[in-house]
Write a structure and sequence with these properties.
The protein is an alpha+beta fold. It folds into two domains: about 10-165, Jelly Rolls, CATH 2.60.120; about 170-270, Orthogonal Bundle (Arc Repressor Mutant, subunit A). It contains ten helices and twelve strands. The strands form three sheets. A six-stranded antiparallel sheet has the order 1-2-9-4-7-11.
């Protein structure tokens, strides 16, 4: 008899303000190296886990706020096989730039925000972000939601160290993968798009993106799959649409990257 999982991964999109929230409960698995287009402001609400980034390693414990930069390779490793709960705000570049960028620089050349700290420990800020999430869940206008998240981010800026860098332009192969995540693309084909040898292309891609072309395409497929599952596509349809060889293959990679299997994800996000 199969034991029902008590893991929960629940997401909510607030596209109109450039925000997505994700809640994870009773999470016990590790998450492999991956990147996001958005910035991650996370709350560890219980338990503990290690966060690995280019900036270093941090042991996150209950009450910690963790900060992940857009496009920054990172992973989570669970110590002692315990369980933990988290809440993340996935913030678009536009949303954070409007809050953090120096006013004199907003209309100049594009800048990318860069969090220097991996984690913060501030009970009042933690509670402010938690209350913001609860306000977002309530029925309200986009303007009210925008005001709520802006207030929380205004508070965050007082507690963290940031800097700015010129925005990095994506290479042609990266853009091609983003536009065609479902295609089975060989290293040779992608290298040709980038006008490089396969050897030099692989090195350059990993240097610029932080993961291999295969890993990058895989995480994009999973992201598309999550969206399709929330639109009531069947698991078999999603596996086919996202380029996996079969449903079993899709389920295995989905669980590895999301933390639960597709069926559980559907139940959590109804």
């Amino acid at each position: 008899m199969r034991i029902k999982s008590n893991k929960v991964i629940r997401s909510a999109d607030y596209t109109e303000i450039g925000l997505k929230t994700i809640v994870g409960k009773n999470i016990s698995n590790n998450f492999p190296v991956h990147t996001h287009e958005s910035y991650i402001i996370g709350l560890l609400t219980s338990g503990a886990t290690y966060c690995y980034t280019l900036r270093g390693t941090a042991l996150l414990t209950a009450g910690d706020i963790y900060l992940i930069n857009a496009r920054e390779p990172h992973s989570f490793q669970n110590p002692n096989s315990g369980v933990y709960d988290y809440l993340t705000f996935c913030c678009s570049k536009r949303l954070l730039t409007n809050i953090f960028a120096p006013k004199s620089e907003v209309n100049q050349s594009p800048l990318s925000l860069y969090f220097i700290d991996i984690k913060l420990k501030d009970a009042q800020l933690f509670d402010t972000l938690l209350q913001t999430y609860r306000l977002l869940q309530k029925k309200s206008t986009p303007e009210a939601k925008q005001t709520s998240i802006n207030t929380a981010l205004d508070e965050l800026i007082k507690h963290c160290n940031v800097t700015f860098f010129p925005e990095v332009i994506k290479n042609k192969a990266q853009l091609f993968i983003e536009q065609n995540p479902q295609l089975n693309l060989s290293l040779t084909e992608l290298a040709k798009i980038a006008n490089l040898s396969p050897y030099h292309f692989l090195r350059q891609f990993k240097k610029e993106v932080g993961v291999s072309p295969y890993q990058y395409q895989l995480q994009l497929r999973i992201k598309v799959a999550q969206s399709l599952l929330q639109q009531n596509y069947s698991i078999a349809e999603v596996a086919l649409e996202t380029g996996f060889t079969d449903q079993s293959h899709f389920t295995r990679f989905f669980r590895k990257h999301v933390g639960i299997n597709p069926g559980e994800y559907i139940n959590c996000n109804r």
